[in-house]
Amino acid sequence: MTPSLESDANTMLIGVVGGGQLGRMIALAGIPLGYRFRFLDPSTDCPAAAVGEVLCGAYDDEVALGRLTEGAMAATYEFENVPARAARYLDRHTRLAPPAHSLAVAQDRIAEKDFFRECGVPVQKYRAVGTEEELDAAIRDVGVPGVLKTRRLGYDGKGQVVIREGSSAAAAWASLAHVPCIYEAFVPFEREVSIVATRGRGGSFVAHPLIRNVHREGILRVSIAPDPDANHALRRAAEGYVRAIAEQLNHVGTLAVEFFVTREGLVANEMAPRVHNSGHWTIEGAVTSQFENHVRAVAGLPLGSADVRGAAAMVNLIGTVPDVHELLDVPGAHVHLYGKEPKPGRKLGHVTVVARDHDELMPCVERLRELAGEVVQPATASELG
Ligand code: AMP
């Protein structure tokens, strides 16, 4: 029998698939609301171990999934590559939020782009690639430059390669081990933005303001909220798109959609059916964080305001953790460390900075980028990137 969502001490337990930093921050937001958390992760010393019980096991181990959901009022996940089998199991045995359908769409780049189109969300030209002939045809149809990406299991720019001329196609596909791919047009974007929103169990919906993101080597480095260059029309368009996506999915929980801003408007890149790195600033920078609203949605509680308090930014700490004293010397800064072993390219923590407005915010962001080992020149938010 599926447990009820009533607030009874025995049912105040939420099972989470994955025990990384996102799971840790979900628990840190849910504990003040009275919830306890149990995580399923292949590693016992994962970041979430500091904030709840960790069951060590594979994500598709049904015995482990059974233990995860035992006595739990609901289950959620902190990454989108949850195996379909595990999602089906959780759907049958507990209240899974976000639903398995949100996962299925986000796990396959072709299904995702098809779905965006069905929702009326603009996407660039793309084609599915399963053979060398299909890749040649896709390049003829979509043109060059383009990006060849694995349909599944890509993240932080991994599993993708830019194709600048047809003659390099075979080598590009070989570098991705000939797995099923998407070939999509390279988008000459002005900047990258995302929107993080939450949909509640009864269909309520809140969206944080549009976020400006800076990536390097496919990895998110900095987020600024609100995007200083977004006009009313762009903000309205992004919010309308994420709302349409959330509603069509019947999504419950937080989700994020990443866009390219082009001269013609927004082009959707991808979605994440979960809390998102570009929304980490919401912990201190928004009236209600993406993590708290996610827990509220999973638990069937009313959602909180997603408004920003002034202006906020997040700088990721990647590969190494700078001196914490220096980071905290920056006015308005808050440090979040995930308790992970340093490794090149690994996200070890982030720093949020909150200020009255962008003018006050940007010098702090520049200083944090410098401390985080980021290459910094620009003085204003518009020049970032
Ligand atoms: P993704 O893993 O799809 O989020 O891609 C990682 C990063 O690569 C994006 O944030 C962009 O900076 C860049 N990128 C991915 N796809 C494209 C594209 N079609 N055109 C231009 N840049 C892209």
Structural commentary:
The protein has twelve helices and 17 strands. It is an alpha+beta fold and 385 residues long. It folds into three domains: 13-96, Rossmann fold (3-Layer(aba) Sandwich); 125-185, Dna Ligase, domain 1, CATH 3.30.1490; 191-375, D-amino Acid Aminotransferase, Chain A, domain 1. The strands form three sheets. Strands 9, 10, 11, 12, 13, 14, 15, 16 and 17 form a nine-stranded antiparallel beta sheet that branches. Strands 3-2-1-4 form a four-stranded parallel beta sheet, sandwiched between helices. The protein has a four-stranded antiparallel beta sheet with strand order 5-8-6-7, with helices on both faces. The longest helix is centred in the middle third of the chain and has 18 residues, at 232-249. The model has no long low-confidence stretch (mean pLDDT 94). The structure holds adenosine monophosphate. Adenosine monophosphate binds next to strand 14.
Helix/strand-derived category reads alpha+beta
Radius of gyration: 21 Å
> What form results from the Cα inertia axes?
globular
Q: Looking at this structure, what is the CATH superfamily of the largest domain?
A: ATP-grasp fold, B domain
TL;DR of this structure?
This protein has helices spanning 21-30, 62-69, 84-93, 100-107, 109-118, 132-142, 169-175, 232-249, 282-285, 290-299, 324-328, 358-371; strands spanning 13-17, 36-41, 53-56, 74-77, 126-129, 146-150, 160-163, 181-185, 191-199, 205-207, 211-216, 219-225, 253-262, 265-272, 311-318, 333-337, 347-355. By secondary structure, the protein is α+β, with helices and mostly antiparallel strands.
